[in-house]
Design brief:
- With about 80 residues, this protein is an alpha+beta fold.
- It has one domain: TATA-Binding Protein (2-Layer Sandwich).
- Helix content is about 25%, strand content about 25%.
- It contains two helices and six strands; from the N terminus they run ββαββββα.
- It has a six-stranded antiparallel sheet, covered by helices on one side.
- A hairpin with a 4-residue loop joins β3 (about 35-40) and β4 (about 45).
- The protein is globular, with a radius of gyration of 11 Å.
């Protein structure tokens, strides 16, 4: 997890992943209660409890000022969601 620009954005890039099945990973995130905003071949966006953007490369951008929440999201992404 890497802080991006401001104190309210984090970039999560899973190691060893070049691409993902965006539909499968996006659906796994949605199944955990995140509301989907945009659902396209370029990215999926999610809201509540933080704003997230998922890319086909597997990268996940997380916007929140809560570092603990960002850390929890990062752990779910690399340990669970990315393997959906």
């Amino acid at each position: 997890m890497k802080l991006c620009g401001t104190q309210a954005s984090y970039q999560i890039v899973p190691e060893g992943i070049d691409s993902i099945d965006l539909e499968a990973v996006g659906s796994a995130i949605e199944a955990e209660g995140y509301e989907v905003g945009v659902r396209s071949r370029l990215c999926w966006t999610f809201t509540e409890p933080c704003i997230m953007t998922l890319f086909p490369s597997g990268k996940l951008m997380v916007r929140t000022e809560d570092k603990e929440l960002a850390t929890t999201v990062a752990e779910r992404h690399v340990e669970v969601w990315i393997h959906a």
